[in-house]
Design brief:
This protein is 39% helix and 21% strand. The protein is built from 15 helices and 24 strands. The structure holds nicotinamide-adenine-dinucleotide (NAD). This is Gamma-glutamyl-gamma-aminobutyraldehyde dehydrogenase.
Length: 499
């Protein structure tokens, strides 16, 4: 196990860092066809980290052709599951070997606290790759119950060329949730990281090559959404597009699929998750801790952020007081310091967007109970104080729209029925939390919650065995668990007449 590093160790590593900056196409690191680059910026300081290859449709065409050739000649797709497992297990091992380096890249690129980058982003990504590696030679196909005169085989074929377009809030983890099952199933995969956070994806390419993934099976195309992302979405030879990001862009990908080859489009989109705390909650301190974590963890840049705290009247004031105290103690700090609990917002645009929502909350009559301002202004970076609004009604803008920042809306309700009604009155349905000590209520009310994940007496529960994805405008399809393999395979029915 590597020794734990101090803030100074990480600063020293950062000063000496030379990250990969080229695209990874056909097993080689190469410049973009146009020769163009874009800057990736450290949101904690506002300074440029590196110039990154800016891919466009020409690079997409090249990568897709190589991915198709790799798929068709079977260099990966026809390998036995056991062989694919061996390579992916090696990849997980290499991710752990280089965990501190990967964590540093993630923190520098998108501003999250280094301790979380190491434990959660890199740790969970390596676990995810390992989990699918271990799963893939244990998944059986089916034989239909069709009697003695026929043999009905129900098998899963890899789908072909899979493009993954991912966001900046958990760059490595969101990529891993997609590429691990897609590669395990035998596909050729092209990853487009978000333009704010390309560094770990490029490091991952290096590790994939070292682990022994054949050329063309995994490629990385950094670039902008409306160029690289759109070209992947519209490509006639991409069979499947797996997306994580905003609902707005998710809708575009459905259109791209319709305008091109009807590729399978799987979407993990936005959220506005309710956190319902009923008056019979068993442990108010635990509920308060999870309420604060649920909105301030990762600076609130979490698709499942518990951004609406819906509280029964009799415990409202006591809970609010505790969440304010916890929020107060989570002030942003230097992301490279392992003691920091909240880091920087990903870029200036996102910071301004979040501050705009805070203004809107005040204008619509919300009571600013904590924070509300930019923090660490002298750092040159983009930090926002933990912010809590009370006196919010569910129809206010900040209770309806995804803010994607450390801004909590507290909504007071009179009873459990109103709480569930408010929780479900939302365009999104990614996750919901419920706090009660009553086991019957826990079951009956969680059935009523319209969300892909329901967490009872916790926020963000689960592990790789649990599927993850949304109802309503939070998307379709599921990441994680064996269900994710459905997205990256086609079901084939082979009927053999035995008469
Ligand atoms: P985004 O939608 O702006 O960008 C996501 C990706 O799409 C990026 O790679 C971007 O380059 C690309 N893109 C942007 N515009 C495009 C276009 N016109 N055509 C093709 N591609 C385009 O999202 P973001 O700001 O990076 O991330 C924040 C969003 O991601 C939030 O809404 C959040 O809820 C969501 N998210 C969802 C999950 C989930 O699992 N449901 C997980 C993490 C983040």
């Amino acid at each position: 196990m590597a020794k734990s590093l101090s803030a100074d160790d990480y600063r020293q590593m950062a000063a000496e860092l030379t990250p990969r900056t080229q695209a990874f196409i056909g097993g080689q690191f190469v410049d973009a066809a146009s020769g163009k680059t874009f800057a990736t910026v450290n949101p904690a300081t506002g300074t440029v980290i590196a110039e990154i290859a800016e891919c466009n449709a020409e690079d997409v065409n090249r990568a897709v052709a190589l991915a198709r050739a790799a798929f068709d000649d079977g260099r990966w797709s026809h390998q036995s599951p056991r062989n694919r497992k061996r390579v992916l297990l090696k990849l997980a091992e290499l991710m752990r070997r280089d965990a501190q380096h990967l964590a540093l890249l993630e923190t520098l690129d998108m501003g999250k606290p280094i301790a979380e980058a190491l434990a959660v982003d890199v740790g969970s990504s390596a676990n995810c790759v390992q989990w699918y590696a271990e799963a893939v030679d244990k998944v059986y196909d089916e034989i239909s119950p069709s009697g003695p005169h026929a043999l009905g085989l129900i098998t899963r074929d890899p789908i072909g060329v899979v493009a993954c377009v991912v966001p900046w809030n958990f760059p490595l983890l969101m990529a891993s949730w997609k590429i691990a099952p897609a590669l395990a199933a035998g596909n050729s995969v092209i990853l487009k990281p978000a333009e704010q956070s390309p560094l770990t994806a490029l490091k991952l390419a290096e590790l994939c090559a070292e682990a022994g993934l054949p050329e063309g099976v995994f490629q990385v195309l950094p670039g902008f959404g409306p160029t690289t992302g759109k070209a992947l979405g519209l490509h006639m030879d991409v069979d499947c597009l797996a997306f994580t990001g905003s609902t707005e862009v998710g809708k575009l990908f459905m259109q791209y699929g319709g305008q091109s080859n009807l590729k399978r489009v799987w979407l993990e989109c936005g959220g506005k998750s309710p956190n319902v705390v009923l008056s019979d909650v068993a442990d108010l301190d635990k509920a308060a801790f999870h309420a604060a974590l649920g909105i301030f963890y990762n600076q609130g840049e979490v698709c499942t952020a518990a951004s609406r705290l819906i509280v029964e009247d009799s415990i409202h004031d006591a809970l609010l007081e505790k969440v304010i105290a916890l929020g107060q103690a989570m002030q942003p700090g230097d992301p490279l310091d392992p003691a920091t609990k909240m880091g920087a917002i990903v870029d200036q645009r996102q910071m301004q967007r979040v501050l705009g929502y805070i203004d809107q909350g005040v204008r619509e009559g919300g009571v600013l109970a904590l924070g509300g301002r930019q923090a660490r202004v002298n750092s040159g970076g983009y930090f926002i104080e933990p912010t809590i609004f009370s006196g919010i009604s569910n129809d206010m803008t900040i209770a309806r729209e995804e803010i994607f920042g450390p801004v909590l809306s507290v909504i007071r309700v009179k009873d459990a029925d109103e709480a569930i009604r408010v929780a479900n009155t939302c365009d999104y349905g990614l996750a919901a939390c419920l706090w009660t000590r009553d086991v019957t209520k826990a079951h009956t009310l969680s059935r009523k919650l319209r969300a892909g994940s329901v967490w009872v007496n916790c926020w963000d529960g689960g592990d790789m065995t649990m599927p993850f994805g949304g109802f309503k405008q939070s998307g379709n399809g599921r990441d994680k668990s064996l269900h994710a393999l459905d997205k990256y395979t086609e079901l084939k029915a082979t009927w053999i007449d035995l008469t």
